[in-house]
Design goal:
By secondary structure, the chain is of the alpha+beta class. It has 15 helices and 16 strands. A hairpin with a 4-residue loop joins strand 15 and strand 16.
Length: 421
RNA sequence: GUGGGUGUAGCUCAGCUGGUAGAGCAUCGGAUUGUGGCUCCGAGCGUCGCGGGUUCGAGCCCCGUCACUCACCCCA
């Protein structure tokens, strides 16, 4: 049998990329802390029904992209394809609204969608998300978006601009959809094959088609913004004014739509520039979903949130400066000193130092070569002669200097070397 | 699900109009037997994705297949 391989579209992160990912997660937590968001964790597996009800039955995700299975012939379960559904489920399950009027949560973790992999699109990918429950006003949207933009900047994304749209409430959307179909239906022959299909399944999607023939038709289509009621419009205007005041770069994009059914009113997206992301240019998507908590069995509760694609963010943002590496490499000069070298290494580790050894019994030369390779700044040479005298050789690998230090003075000497630089 | 591209050492790749495999990096060893980095010398490492075909002979040609990848679709 051939060697096992990682499942298609699912990837290992080796240490260099893991460091980048972990750094981004740490930055996200730090920014969230300033906005007073707390982190929650929910299961990777949820009842299939949860996603069908929240994301929408006729969405691509639910129709063909979910990893679903029946557990022991009993329960229909699914690997989560996105984060909001589980977070809302947890919010309802724990009746969090009874504890506090407004809840601010972040989450991060793997998501699963069975799509054809491409640049920036994987079957297991990771999202950094935030949800704000309990505040119906546009300033909540603005504060959330401000947090998002701040994070993206601190993560190292060069130019960040938020694309904004409003889908209105349920009635506005229904009216608009009707008007749009009425406009598109007679022009059906002019549309691309994909859009002709969309017209029946999800007409709003025709709006953001990339096909040139579709764009021409869409250019003169009715605009969702003309169908908003007074409250919808006030919400959108309030959000734009707030973003202006908060100096968050944003642009109204009336053709912006999303693939999930649960959004109301505010919809936003952040895209990469210059093709770093290939055809998958969205690094973050979000919006308001005022009806979702209620449909999941909770009280009517307004909410707004976003999700960032970690892998796409990594494509967009430069990796962080490398963290400080190994402090001390303990070398056993001869095979007989290996155990004592291990003891010394242990003592230094207890001091909080990062200590590496190579106790395979190789030559002094090969051990020092390793010390150099791993970027250690100090090497500690443990030899039989020195051990007999209760000392070790402390070598500064950058300066190439070496001196003899008594074992009892070792910690102080190393501390001095470290602070010297 | 649809279309294109690519598959040669651990990694990045070279390999002329078919003659039975190479470089750099990495790994390991050595350059007066207890001293790294630079340099030099050397070593190991390849079912040339897999299967079939054409041919005296295929990594190079043909067919199939699988994988990866890019684009479409969709989305983070």
């Amino acid at each position: 049998m051939s060697a096992p391989r990682a499942v298609k579209g699912m990837h290992d992160l080796l240490p260099d990329r893991t460091a980048h990912a972990a750094w981004l997660e740490a930055r996200f937590r730090e920014v969230a802390r300033r906005w007073s968001f707390d982190e929650i964790r929910t299961p990777v597996v949820e009842p299939t029904e949860l996603f069908v009800r929240s994301i929408g039955e006729s969405t691509d995700i639910v129709e063909k992209e979910m990893y679903s299975f029946v557990d022991k012939g009993q329960d229909a379960l699914t690997l989560r394809p996105e984060g909001t559904a589980g977070v809302v489920r947890a919010y309802v399950e724990h009746a969090v609204w009874t504890q506090e009027p407004v809840t601010r949560w972040i989450y991060m973790g793997p998501m699963f969608r069975r799509e054809r992999p491409a640049r920036g699109r994987y079957r297991q990918f990771h999202q950094l998300g935030a949800e704000l429950f309990g505040d119906p006003g546009p300033y909540a949207d603005a504060e959330l978006i401000d947090m998002l933009v701040t994070f993206l900047r601190e993560a190292g994304v060069a130019d960040v601009e938020v694309l904004l749209n409003s889908l209105g409430g349920p009635e506005a959307r229904r009216a608009y959809r009707h008007a749009l179909v009425e406009y598109l239906e007679p022009r059906r022959p002019a549309l691309s094959a994909d859009s002709q299909r969309r017209l029946a399944s999800n007409p709003l999607r025709v709006l953001d088609s990339k096909a040139p023939e579709d764009r021409e038709v869409v250019a003169h289509a009715p605009r969702i913004t003309d169908f908003l009621n007074a409250e919808d419009r006030a919400h959108l205007d309030g959000l734009r004014a707030a973003l202006d005041r908060l100096q968050v770069p944003h642009r109204l994009e009336p053709t912006l739509v999303r693939g999930l059914d649960y959004y109301d009113r505010t919809l936003f997206e952040v895209r990469g520039r210059g093709g770093e992301l290939g055809a998958q240019d969205a690094v973050c998507g979000g919006g308001r979903y005022d009806g979702l908590v209620e449909t999941m069995g909770g009280p009517p509760t307004p909410a707004v949130g976003f999700a960032i694609g970690l892998e796409r963010l990594m494509l967009l943002a430069p990796p962080p400066p490398p963290p400080p590496g190994t402090d001390v490499f303990v070398v056993a000069v001869g095979a007989a000193e290996r155990l004592e070298a291990a003891v010394i290494a242990r003592e230094l580790r207890a001091e909080g130092l990062s200590v590496e050894t190579d106790l395979r019994g190789g030559s002094l030369r090969s051990q020092l070569r390793r010390a150099d390779r791993v970027g250690a700044r100090l090497a500690l040479l443990v030899g039989s002669d020195e051990l007999a005298r209760g000392v070790v050789q402390l070598r500064d690998l950058r300066a190439g200097r070496q001196r003899e230090v008594g074992r009892d003075a070792l910690r102080a000497a190393i501390r001095a070397e470290r602070s010297a630089t």
